[in-house]
Amino acid sequence: SESMEQEGKEVLRRLVQAGYEAYFVGGCVRDKLIGKPLKDIDIATSALPETVLELFERTVPTGLAHGTVTVLMERHPFEVTTFRKESEYEQYRRPKEVEFISDLNEDLRRRDFTINAMALAEDGRIIDPFGGQRDLVGCLIRAVGDPLERFGEDALRMLRGIRFACEYGFGIEDDTWEALVDHAPLLVHVAMERVYAELTKMIAGSAPDRAIDLLAQSRLPDYFKESVGWPSLTRGDTDRAVWRLAELDDPELRWTGLLARLGLDASQAKQSLKRLTFPGKKSEHIVKLLQADEWMERSRWRETDGGEAGYDLIARAAVSFGKSIVRDWLTLAAWRYKAETGALAGEPHAAAFLSNASLWLERVPVERVQDLAIDGSELVRELDKPPGPWLGQLLGELLLLTAGRRLPNEREALAEQAKFIAKRDTY
Ligand code: ATP
Ligand code: MG
Q1: Which of 18, 104, 236, 285 has minimal Cβ neighbours within 10 Å of its Cβ?
Q2: Domain named Poly A polymerase head: which ranges (predicted)?
Q3: Is the CB–ligand 1 distance for residue 111 below 6 Å?
Q4: Do 17 and 40 fall into the same domain?
């Protein structure tokens, strides 16, 4: 935002007034030149971290060993990092140690791609020793210097290259692409957390389908440290038309769609997400959605017509998985159906089912036993029986009947039905 840029410039001015060099660097320079809104502003300076700590009132020593101090201005934080060189990379990963230097160009040289290796001074001057502006105009992702060497230093850069190409709709320069394909096996040295961070940005980003395509072509997923079990992708199945993830808005639905398209069932998907270090909550949601998908297929939803049977299936799904999961499943099923309309020509019920299902779902009056107008202790009293396993069973049956609208959600009616069931089943 405007105020972020103003405050960032104030940080530059103070450093320059104290006799140091200071610039905006990296992603924010790239995004500013493209005309994209800035997410954050990183600053590079010739001042040492202890000097930065002294020059500003509010600071956080975020990563002193790497030269980074967070400076808190009125409304925005800024990461201020001392010019540095990364000597000695440790086994194709991050540098083992950093060396502070006084030359901006050397600092830019350690960066991954030309479009990420530019600096912007307070007066608007752009420092661009590697042709970042040329590559922005030519829409190219190009490694700074020798791509083989750069990917050898930090193999994660290969995934970053694909991510930037997709995010900006850029091509990948020939030598950079060749090096990427060549060095793909080095990815085994990179922690899965870092792999996950890049992948999830690709999937949530502006061109997930192209990302999958480039991943397949480069075969990078073959060399993840942990096997994520995406056989059809690593087989080189690159028919882009089949993915269509961009048509789904929600990133978690995109992941679900991807895993389903890769042919993974719910338990395989769970394993795959675990290896990817996916956060637990998100992973649970995706796995539950795939379970619901399997359940719906087993229940033959495609052959269920638009009448009472359709409503009933949706009601049972709502009780089994919760309405919110069923809502997501409907989005997923409609998306898939749209891609498959030709293939589903022989299934006239499927379209009718999907077009009615959202309405049915909203009409389902209850989804959990807590929604029933009678609770366990009341049933114990009504039936005059000590609590036991029968209680859960009975509540489940009442829930199903109520959800299916065969029984109104009213206390009297529920008690009456409970007595009938108890007699029938002779609890
Ligand atoms: P994003 O929009 O994803 O934040 P970004 O370019 O700001 O893009 P960051 O990961 O925030 O990416 O990194 C900031 C800058 O640090 C990059 O622009 C790049 O110059 C440099 N950088 C980050 N990671 C690497 C890396 N693995 N190797 C070399 N340089 C890197
Ligand atoms: Mg950034």
Answers
A1: 236
A2: 22-140
A3: yes
A4: yes
